[in-house]
């Protein structure tokens, strides 16, 4: 049976997904965390660092929602502050220096909408990621494993490829928000979800993403599926010259 | 664990835009400046459309800036217009209305301009065209602006005004943020100058992309400049925020704007910056 768009929304938001911790510890056996944006803060909603992937050094960055209530509050339920986006740029820039691939795992409702986030330049932080990551001479792959909310997700998915787990979504705003604008009625979320083309299948058709990763209930199998995609895609991207890589990256967004 | 599956998670909340903040030039004979509340007589408003007391620049159509801003202007890509990729209901009517109000086919006016014999590529976003929202074709016109400027070795001046991404176009609108940013990056890599002028309002996906990527960032007095909507912020942090959190003056204080320039001084300022701000010393 095919899932409705709203089924996908519910599944994307469910807590049955693999967690950021599982990603860091099971796809990579030796994750070493690197904290901070090097400017003024360390946002716990973004966890990044060095690791090896089949004996190959990589930079791994994940959004992180946290487990306990206290942790979740601190991490703003996985919504990054400017310091989080700047940490991403710092780690990705460092990865480029050593031609290390960057792998980002994204599950966020969006950038955190707070007072201090505004004062510290939330828009500027995301913008600088879009601007500078477009030029980084190393492969950048993003994998969505839940919600991909708006500019806050795009700032973590502006590289060479975007893949989505089957039960993920990627939107310009939440379907609730879309419904309240379209029908002035936030309860018509299901209809909005259909119109928005937010499912991995729709997004693949629109070429917003490169592919869909099967997501069975068994987390080990999900990890294997992600591993397989990365094992295929990283070497393929590494074969390209820097010029080819950056030209393809430009063309990837230019077509929209 | 059910704790976070109620209907008020960050993903599910949505707060409608503040319609009262829609401060276009009012039609009445006497009105109040939305920023300093000074009473203004409509007859006293000149072509700059600024508050005589606080210099706030009212939201005006892109074409209305040209007479006092530039010495010459040749429009580019005038025919590009939006489509309706999601078959969004009533979107065509909205576009038709916007075209009439702005005398534009999309929410940005682009072209080659001249000030004091200096040529540059100019973009002006139009708050009267669906609040300057970033549609697919807005992104197309802006990408072409930067690409043509790169090819012709021209600096770019861009006046931003936008409510953010255009939700009627869904994910394609979001992709424009990256598309235009990539074109800005290539223009910058070619050693060319990019000056942003933030006007009221510059918010959302535009703030989070090309509005925050300039070599020099100017702003008009009291312009609203921010990422998230004020009500969204208030509902998220459960406290009232001051009206000036997202004022150009406060954003400057926090280090994200170089200089606030009133409309009457923009031409002179841009002339100087275009002459001196992008020269490569060999």
TrEMBL record, chain A:
Pfam families: ACCA (PF03255). Transmembrane segments: none annotated. Residues 1-236 form the CoA carboxyltransferase C-terminal domain. Its EC number is 2.1.3.15. GO terms for molecular function: acetyl-CoA carboxylase activity; ATP binding; carboxyl- or carbamoyltransferase activity. Signal peptide: none annotated. This is acetyl-CoA carboxytransferase. The lineage of its organism: Bacteria, Bacillati, Bacillota, Bacilli, Lactobacillales.
TrEMBL record, chain B:
One of its GO terms (molecular function) is zinc ion binding. Zn(2+) binds at residues 33, 36, 51, 54. GO terms for cellular component: acetyl-CoA carboxylase complex. InterPro entries: AcCoA_carboxyl_beta (IPR034733), Acetyl_CoA_COase_Trfase_b_su (IPR000438), ClpP/crotonase-like_dom_sf (IPR029045), COA_CT_N (IPR011762). Binds 1 zinc ion per subunit. One of its GO terms (biological process) is malonyl-CoA biosynthetic process. It comes from the Bacteria. Its cofactor is Zn(2+). Its EC number is 2.1.3.15. The keyword Plastid does not apply. It is found in: Cytoplasm. Pfam families: Carboxyl_trans. Residues 29-282 form the CoA carboxyltransferase N-terminal domain. Pathway: Lipid metabolism; malonyl-CoA biosynthesis; malonyl-CoA from acetyl-CoA: step 1/1. Keywords: ATP-binding, Cytoplasm, Fatty acid biosynthesis, Fatty acid metabolism, Lipid biosynthesis, Lipid metabolism, Metal-binding, Nucleotide-binding, Transferase, Zinc, Zinc-finger. It catalyses: N(6)-carboxybiotinyl-L-lysyl-[protein] + acetyl-CoA = N(6)-biotinyl-L-lysyl-[protein] + malonyl-CoA. PANTHER family: ACETYL-COENZYME A CARBOXYLASE CARBOXYL TRANSFERASE SUBUNIT BETA, CHLOROPLASTIC. Component of the acetyl coenzyme A carboxylase (ACC) complex. Biotin carboxylase (BC) catalyzes the carboxylation of biotin on its carrier protein (BCCP) and then the CO(2) group is transferred by the transcarboxylase to acetyl-CoA to form malonyl-CoA. Acetyl-CoA carboxylase is a heterohexamer composed of biotin carboxyl carrier protein (AccB), biotin carboxylase (AccC) and two subunits each of ACCase subunit alpha (AccA) and ACCase subunit beta (AccD). Belongs to the AccD/PCCB family. This is Acetyl-coenzyme A carboxylase carboxyl transferase subunit beta. It comes from Lactobacillus rodentium.
């Amino acid at each position: 049976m095919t899932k409705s768009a709203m089924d996908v929304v519910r599944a994307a938001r469910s807590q049955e997904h693999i967690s950021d911790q599982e990603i860091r510890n099971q796809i990579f056996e030796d994750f070493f965390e690197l904290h901070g944006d090097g400017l003024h803060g360390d946002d716990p909603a973004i966890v990044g660092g060095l690791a090896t992937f089949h004996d190959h050094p990589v930079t791994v960055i994940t959004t992180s929602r946290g487990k306990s209530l206290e942790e979740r509050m601190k991490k703003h339920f996985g919504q990054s502050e400017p310091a989080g986006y700047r940490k991403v740029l710092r780690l990705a820039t460092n990865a480029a220096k050593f031609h290390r691939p960057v792998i980002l795992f994204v599950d966020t409702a969006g950038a955190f909408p707070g007072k201090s986030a505004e004062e510290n330049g939330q828009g500027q932080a995301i913008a600088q990621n879009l601007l500078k990551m477009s030029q980084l001479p190393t492969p950048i792959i993003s994998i969505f494993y839940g919600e991909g909310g708006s500019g806050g997700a795009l700032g973590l998915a502006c590289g060479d490829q975007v893949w989505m787990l089957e039960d993920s979504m990627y939107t310009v705003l939440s379907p609730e928000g879309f419904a309240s604008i379209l029908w002035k009625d936030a309860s018509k979320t299901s209809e909005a979800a259909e119109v928005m083309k937010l499912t991995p299948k729709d997004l693949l058709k629109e070429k917003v993403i490169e592919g869909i990763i099967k997501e069975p209930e068994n987390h080990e199998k999900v990890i294997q599926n992600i591993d397989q995609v990365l094992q295929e895609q990283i070497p393929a991207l590494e074969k390209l010259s820097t010029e080819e890589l950056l030209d393809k990256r430009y063309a990837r967004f230019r077509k929209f | 664990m059910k704790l976070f599956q109620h209907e008020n998670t960050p993903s599910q909340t949505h707060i409608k835009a503040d319609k009262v903040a829609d401060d276009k030039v009012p039609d009445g004979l006497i009105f109040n400046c939305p920023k300093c509340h000074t009473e203004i007589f409509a007859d006293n408003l000149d072509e700059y459309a600024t508050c005589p007391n606080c210099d706030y620049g009212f939201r005006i159509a892109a074409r209305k800036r040209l007479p006092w801003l530039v010495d010459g202007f040749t429009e580019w890509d005038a025919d590009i217009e939006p489509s309706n990729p999601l078959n969004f209901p009533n979107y065509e009517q909205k576009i038709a209305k916007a075209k009439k109000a702005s005398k534009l086919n999309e929410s940005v006016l682009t072209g080659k301009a001249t000030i004091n014999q200096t040529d540059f590529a100019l973009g002006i976003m139009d708050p009267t065209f669906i609040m300057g929202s970033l549609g697919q074709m807005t992104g197309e016109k802006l990408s072409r602006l930067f690409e043509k400027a790169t090819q012709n070795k021209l600096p770019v001046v861009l006046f931003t005004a936008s409510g953010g991404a255009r939700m009627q176009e869904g994910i394609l609108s979001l992709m424009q943020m990256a598309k235009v940013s990539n074109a800005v990056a290539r223009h910058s890599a070619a050693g060319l100058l990019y000056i942003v002028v933030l006007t009221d309002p510059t918010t959302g996906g535009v703030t989070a992309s090309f509005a925050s990527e300039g070599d020099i960032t100017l702003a008009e007095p009291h312009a609203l400049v921010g990422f998230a909507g004020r009500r969204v912020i208030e509902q998220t942090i459960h406290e009232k925020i001051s009206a000036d959190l997202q004022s150009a003056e406060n954003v400057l204080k926090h280090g994200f704007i170089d200089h606030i320039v009133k409309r009457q001084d923009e031409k002179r300022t841009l002339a100087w910056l275009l002459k001196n701000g992008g020269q490569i010393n060999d």
